[in-house]
Each structure stands twice: as structure tokens, then as C-alpha cells.
């Protein structure tokens, strides 16, 4: 237990006394240390929580000077002030100006009798602090033994319950996406909403560190769990005391061990899901009912699904990525399987293939569990057509490698993906070659806009005139002028493709600077 001023007053061997009617909250202050100083301004030498003793050798007796002295001691963080009395000392009793100044400042003022040396008070304080530290160490050992015994049981909850019972601090274990796995008895409803930003920050850093904050008057702390890879997160709600704080690393280790065991226990289920995906893809033309039944057996009941392909990369710590290892691919596949409810995941041909529900935020999952890995995301399809979605996802890996981000197949986006593969300066140079004559014309921007609108509507004159808000004859006149300037023909497939490609490049943005 911490040492309070009241505890020192209760010791008959010290025979300390108060000089005024000190309120109980002030007597409940914790004493962290004891020190002696007769300096007229000792505040800057204090660290906080001290019992400051003085014989008052240089103590001023003017009321204003006493108030300044007491204020300096209080602002230095002293828990209380003690004046030594006795024969041969400056004071036989506490002087009235000092007592009044201490009472006004709310600083407890004690007296030390002549028969009690200051060293006795100092020893009493530090003996009590040593007893407190030994008691904290014993509590820590006891808590650690309880946690170790609970770890021999089944699951995460027994350890969390023991922790909460021993420390009074709420605890919950979350998966890497912040979903609740288990909670201590007193933390049946952990504050996931208030801790969301903290959880996401720690999860994004993997095993590289914890974080804490305060929300709604409660201290929140998140610790990463896992051995070589992030397996989960520990959320602590409350402020652990020193004994509990020393046990946190042990709690993290035991919970990490349990999550690693759970990961190994889940291996048969991951193999089963991998086999289901292989079975689904082995049938070139599965019926809708069979495809839905296979997915439903894994818990995936979405009406539409999409294929995802991920190419793992090796260590990037020393320059270019190294070739991925088979174990790295399987580790990443296991992480993705955890994050994809009902999803099917397998490692095939050096890449990871997955089938997930259309509603899953797959970009968030990839950013969390496969950062910097090339990835293709196929379009949403019916379950029986998932082979097509996976094939398209595979085709997007090159786009993802070039762009440095997952590439997703969307309707009417194929040309954009192809253009993204090219060097921007080269592409804009091509567009300038084709459209340069129009750039030099007086109404060049108008001619290019009309040409682009006509090409985008598939050569429909009426649709182009409605889009631009001009008569169709105006559209014809502009396009005739554009063809005269460029020397192209709209009825020539090659010329038409060149013009379409050039306008698409221009629509994609300005070229990079030199």
C-alpha cells in the first residue's frame, strides 16, 4: 500500500504532530520520499511527493515572506512540510506566520519533536516505500502465477478473467481487424468504439509497438499479440498500478502463445477451405446450384462473389524485394483467410487465390494483411462464374506491379488499366502527335472536345449533339474540320483508334513535368 501522511502521523515512534486542523484529503497525500533542506527557496530541488524537513534556520518570519516560502515548496510538489523543534534549534514551536501560510496554501505542516532525529523519519519513509515495492512484487508474482495456471486451461477468456479479477483492469482480445474474440468478466462490453482509432493505429504497425490514449475519462491501451506475425490485439481499459504494469508483458506473452496455438489448430480448416476452392475451380462449367453449395459449406452465402489474386513479395528491408518464399505465401494466405469471413483461400502456382463475398472491403483487407503485395481484384460475378473473375484478377497483377496498388476490374475500366501501364511522358507525346494540328487551330479545344464526345458515344451524331448542346450539323462541321487538320478519316479503323486513344490519354490528365 502507498505511504500516506496519515500513516506517518499514526506511528508512535515518530511522534509527529500537525500544526493546524488539516483536512483528511490532504492527510491522504502519498509520500514518495523524505528530504532535508534549509534553503530559502528549495522548490526547484524537489521532484514531487516529498516530505520536506527543515529546522527553519533561514526561515523568514514576515507573513509575506512566509507565504512566498510555502508557495515555493508547494509548487515544487512537496507532499508536506515538517519543522524540527527542540533545544538548540531556532524554534521550540511552529511560528504562527508559517502555520497561517501553510493553512492558506493547503500544505500540511508537521512538527518533528526534539527526541526524533530527521534520519529516523527518513528511514521510516524509505522502509515503508521498500515494503510497498516488495508487496507490489509479491502481487505481481501472484498475478503471474494465476495467469500461467489459467493459460493451461482452454482459450483466452480464463486468462482475461484472472487478469481482471487480480488487477481490476478490463481486458479484451481482438483479432487483427478489431473484432472481439474474448473479454474478461468485468469487460463483457469493451469500449471498441472509443478505442477504434487506437486499435487501427496499432494494427497497422503490426508487432512494432503499443499505444495508449484516454477516452471518456478512461485510459485505453492496445498491445499487439503474436510471435512472428500479428495474430491479435489486447485492449486494456483502466490504469494498471505498478504491480499490474509489471505483469503486462507476461500477459501479452501468454495471450500470444494462445493465439499461436489457435492458429495451428485452425490449419485443418484452412486446408479444407483450400480444397473446396480447388474443387470449385476444377469444374470448368459448374452449375449454379453446385457452386453455391460449395461456397455455402464454407459459410459464404453471398449472391455474388469476386476472385482475388495476391502475389507475395519477400524481404524489402535492403532494397528491391526478394523472391517470395513458399512459407511467406502460406503465412499471408493464413492471414487473409482469417480476415475474409466465409472466404476461400489457397496457394497455387506461387500466388494466393481467394474467393470472397462482393460486400467485403477487400482493399482494406489487402492493405492490412498484404501491404505492398501486387494484387488483382476481379469483378463481382455469380458463384458459378468465379473462374472468370479469378482469371481477370490474375491478368491485373502486372497493372498492380506497375501502379504499386491493388488493381480492380471494373466495367469500362479496361482501357484505363492499359493506359496506366504505359509511361506517361511517352503516352502524352503520342497524343500530342495525333492531336497537335488541332491544338494549333483557333478553336482547337472545341474541336478536340467534339471529337472526344463523338468517339465516346460510338459515333452517334444525335447523342453527341445532345451531350454538347449544339446542333448535329455543328458537330459534323467541327469533325470535318478536325479531319482536314489532322489528315485522318473517321471511317478508317486505324485512324479512329488513334484518335480515340489520343483523346483518352488527354482525358487522363496532364503529363509530368521535366
Task: Summarize the structure in words.
The protein is 48% helix and 14% strand. It is α/β, with parallel strands linked by helices. The C terminus is likely disordered. The protein is elongated and about 120 Å long. Strand 6 and strand 7 form a beta hairpin. It folds into four domains: 112 residues, HprK N-terminal domain-like (Udp-n-acetylmuramoylalanyl-d-glutamate--2,6- Diaminopimelate Ligase, Chain: A, domain 1), CATH 3.40.1390; 126 residues, GAF domain (Beta-Lactamase, 2-Layer Sandwich), CATH 3.30.450.40; 154 residues, Alpha-Beta Plaits; 84 residues, Arc Repressor Mutant, subunit A, CATH 1.10.10.2840. Helix 17 packs across helix 20. A five-stranded mixed sheet has the order 1-5-4-3-2. A five-stranded antiparallel sheet has the order 7-6-10-9-8. It has a five-stranded mixed sheet with strand order 12-13-11-14-15, with helices on both faces.
Q: What structural class do you assign from the helix and strand content?
A: alpha/beta
The total count of helices amounts to 20
CATH topology of the largest domain: Alpha-Beta Plaits
Number of strands: 15
| Amount of helix | 40-55%
Strand order of the largest sheet: 1-5-4-3-2
Summarize the main sheet: 5 strands, mixed
Radius of gyration: 37 Å
Low-confidence stretches: 315-321, 510-514
Quick synopsis:
The protein has helices at residues 5-9, 24-27, 63-75, 96-105, 118-151, 157-167, 196-204, 242-265, 267-282, 288-296, 326-339, 362-369, 386-395, 397-403, 414-421, 424-439, 444-456, 461-468, 472-486, 493-507; strands at 17-18, 33-36, 50-54, 80-84, 109-112, 170-174, 180-183, 211-215, 218-225, 232-237, 305-310, 344-348, 351-357, 375-377, 407-408. Helix 3 links the parallel strand 3 (50-54) and strand 4 (80-84).
